[in-house]
Amino acid sequence: MTAAQAQVEAQVEGFTASRERLTTVLGLFDSAAAAAVSHAELEVHLQVAGRELFRRLYQDHLDLRARRETRVAVHDADGALRRRAETGHARALSTVFGQVEVTRIAYRAPERSNLHPADAVLNLPAERHSHGLRRLAAVEATRGSYDDAVTGIASATGQRLVNARSRRSPPEPRSTSTTSTPPAPPAPGPARRCSCCPATVSPS
After folding, report:
1. What gap in Å lies between CA 148 and CA 140, rounded to an integer?
2. Which of 47, 130, 173, 181 could form a disulfide with 95 if both were Cys (CB 3.0 to 4.6 A apart)?
3. Is there a domain that residue 84 lies in?
4. How many domains does the chain have?
């Protein structure tokens, strides 16, 4: 495979929006206008542009996971197998980079809540705010009033919290790692339960 073919294949697979944003940012900082501004202005521009780039990377990755998600055997809390699966079910997630959308397969049954095994893999909170954003809110809240915390979060992330939940310390994401190294992606293993719905997921 040639380099050009590999590039086309990568673009088809995903991350098109991220590449477009990176090209825009590079063009901005490679321009004559950027050469005439102060370091403080460059810092502000890069903070905002970089945040949006990271948000798009996050979103592109979630979209890639959605395209690659395959059906698995899912049992509800009563042990009944969910045989009906629908793709395209989405929920919002507010992160330290901005809002993204998580799309995944929903396993359905009459008069029962939908089950989303992909939520367990991502360890999504039941609420809209990510663990990272809620942790930041807890840290900021210890430094002053709630309004000061909201202002500090908005300054650091561009996100404005209005939910009273941000006043409370967020639960820590589940992890078996004892170091600061991010855990590896989960390998197929025993059945596991979702943190925000009573799904039991068995590896296919």
Report:
1. 8
2. 130
3. no
4. 1
